[in-house]
Design a protein that fits this description.
Layout lengths: L3 H13 L3 H20 L2 E2 L1 H6 L6 E5 L15 E3 L2 H4 L1 E2 L4 E2 L2 H11 L6 E5 L5 H12 L6 E4 L2 H7 L29 H8 L6 E4 L3 H5 L22 E2 L15 H9 L9 E4 L5 H12 L4 E4 L2 H5 L19
Parallel strand pairs: 1-7, 2-3, 2-6, 6-7, 8-9, 8-10, 10-11
Antiparallel strand pairs: 4-5
Helix pairs in contact: 6-11
């Protein structure tokens, strides 16, 4: 047993000592948050604002509307124009290895870089960017900013008009992987019931039924209206909350399960030209972990093909002058 004087000395010493356990918890808590950000395909606006100046992160905007980046963007973000940077502008294809190599080097992207993509219209074309990046081996380190521009601006987080300057990388692209991309022959085999896969058409109900060929003002058209036999229709934006964030995993699973898609079979996502469907591909593949591929030929390829089976619920027929 301690003598009174010894007890008082020990108590005083304890009061003077730093609170070691609390100090030890802070870095542990930080590491948990950092690991969560590394493991998730999404990052929050709060996380990104705290990491804007990180040398290990590249922030990339891929928006639908031209000029939106120049009017103000997330600090340190770089701009990618989906219709020129991510595609071959003459042939209908994604950016080839040489073009993608030049893009990645300009962005300062390497295979160990955390790449945060975001954009307008609920990250529609940011998801297209994620799909293209994934074909060049940049998959797990590519994240979407949950909520995109919409949430960032609604929360009045900082915007900048300056162009970010980053050191060029030494990234070299190999031939793109075909594992994430469905081709015409693949969807035709499913339509003819020669392959046991599911097709998710994410266009509007009017496009799916054949009432219209494409949304008003769109130039990429097909000769026929309707959809691929055997496909189910869940418009892509149903996966998104009003604030632009993705719905919870449980909500997303229920959304797709209601149409018979639960991940038990491989899934092919499709739309008109493959961009909207890349958003659903991201949700199914990256968020839910389902086996999914995107068909970027989509209805403008399938609907223009000769002699293929088509379902047209609206009963519209093609006519010409």
């Amino acid at each position: 047993m301690l003598r009174p004087s010894a007890f008082l000395f020990a108590a005083a010493a304890a009061l003077l000592l730093p609170a070691a356990p609390a100090a030890a918890q802070e870095p542990a808590a930080r590491s948990v948050k950092e690991k969560a950000a590394q493991d998730s395909p999404l990052v929050s606006t709060e996380w990104l604002e705290k990491n804007l100046d990180s040398k290990k992160i590249r922030i990339v905007e891929v928006s639908v509307e031209p000029g939106v980046f120049e009017r103000g963007h997330i600090p340190n973000a770089q701009n990618v124009a989906w219709h020129t940077d991510l595609v071959e502008t003459v042939s209908r294809d994604i950016a080839g290895p040489d073009k993608f190599t030049a893009l990645a080097r300009r962005l300062g992207v390497d295979r160990d870089t955390t790449i945060v993509l975001y954009g307008d219209n609920n990250n529609w074309f940011a998801a297209w960017g994620a799909w293209v990046f994934a074909q060049y081996g940049l998959t797990d380190n590519v994240k979407l900013l949950d909520g995109g521009r919409k949430k960032w601006e609604a929360e009045k987080r900082p915007l900048d008009t300056r162009t970010a300057e980053v050191p060029a990388s030494t990234f070299t692209a190999q031939a793109p992987s075909g594992k994430l991309r469905a081709r015409f022959a693949d969807v035709l085999a499913v339509a003819k019931k020669e392959r046991d896969e599911q097709i998710l058409d994410i266009r509007s109900p009017d496009e799916f039924s054949g009432k219209i060929i494409a949304p008003a003002g769109i130039q990429e058209l097909a000769i026929r209206a309707g959809h691929i036999p055997g496909s189910v229709n869940i418009p892509w934006a149903k996966a998104v909350n009003p604030d632009g964030t993705l719905k919870s995993k449980d909500e997303l699973k229920a959304l797709y399960a209601a149409a018979g898609i639960d991940g038990a079979k491989p899934i092919i996502t499709t739309c008109r030209i493959g961009e909207r469907s890349s958003h659903s591909w991201f949700v199914l593949s990256r968020v839910l972990g389902y086996d999914a591929r995107n068909y970027d030929g989509s209805w403008t390829e399938y609907g223009n093909a000769v002699g293929v089976p088509v379902i047209n619920l609206a009963g519209t027929v093609w006519g010409g002058k």
